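Need tokens for this chain, all 271 residues.
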Amino acid sequence: MGEVHAIRKEEPVIASELSDGILQLTLQNPPANALSLAMMQLLLDQLRIARDDKAVRVIILRSGLRLFSAGHDLKELTAHRKGEDRGRAFFERTMRLCAELMQAIVRHPRPVIAAVDGLATAAGCQLVASCDLAICTDKATFCTPGVNIGLFCSTPMVALSRNVSRKQAMEMLLTGETIDASTAREFGLVNRVVPQEYLNQIVRKYAQAIAMKSPLTVKIGKEAFYRQLEMGLTEAYDYAGEVMVENMLARDAEEGINAFIEKRSPDWKGE
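Here are the structure tokens for all 271 residues:
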């Protein structure tokens, strides 16, 4: 059994469980798993801890509620309108922290998998899009509905537009309409759609497959993937070639190739 404990800052709560290299973080901020300032800071703290924990190979983000996340806490944001600056300072703080959190996921040395059941809306949808993999149930739904309340989902747009085509991203952003799980897979927002009762089993299977790989190789590959996406074709090939050379010189690459030739299981050292 893995170690289970809860991290609290009054409320919300993130329950963490580490087992066989797989760190599962369960978001619990009733009633809608809103990404309040406290929840985002709590999640960011857990991601930072996991960066330095060599026992962690893969991270799973899931919800302990009936929906994944309803996005930013609109009541919390609205409460700060009463200040002299009409909430500007708090709004800026919220958006900075949100951007920091989403980038922490993308730049994390470990792959992050979103296990989605129920609704993921606005910044909740952004959270899903920011993860490296996303697996959802056939009951999951997704939307970026800010336009419906006069608040365009501009920050969710960053993650969304880097995962689905421009036309599909604009469809979600301009209409604010909810898409179902099969449409989300068609758009490329999620990898797989599975029956509700099999979500944890399938997500765990993906995580176990990744956890068996060289942690150094996975780290190198994830970083290179996102960096080359922002480059031109020639620059991307030059960069990727340099990464391949450095990777070939790593002890794990030598071990992995030798193990393949010798028809045995590799002994990864993360070096």
